[in-house]
Amino acid sequence: MFVGFVVLAAILTSVLAPKATHALVATLVQVSNTPSSPVPNKDVDSPAHATVVPLGCFASPQPFNGGVTCTLGVGGGSAYTVPAGQRLVIEQLSAFCQTNPNGGIPFIEFNLTEAGTQVIVPLALTSNQNDEFVTQAVRYYADPGTTIGSTAPGDAATFCDFYANGYLVSYP
Fold this sequence. Notes:
2 helices, 11 strands, 2 domains, alpha+beta, five-stranded antiparallel sheet, six-stranded antiparallel sheet, Jelly Rolls, single chain
């Protein structure tokens, strides 16, 4: 019964006199630091500080697998690998494919590793005769050491450009 009375009194005091409660708590909790023992902190990640050049690749037909596939790189170059200690926040995926007049690509896929799990991101394409395209806002977090792959079904006349846009953030 006594404990309940104390809790009720504390609640009433904090509601009726919030400044006094704040002052009491502030005097009980003191953080002091000196130049020899500073308070640890971390700068907030900013997309403007670690923007990755748009990743892209051009995929031509693969005669033995019945589709097109490639791994995205900076400026379409060799495969980009997410650096150690960082994650790539992917905010947009897009693709443009061309097929023969009788062909068609119902979807494309991007693949990456997020939180230690292989993730496949299918995107439906919009068709305009033999041109297929898609641009999709997304939010995926590619783990350190990850490369981003892309695939599309198609025949020997299928060609695709794949792109991903995002930025790097620190990852413990």
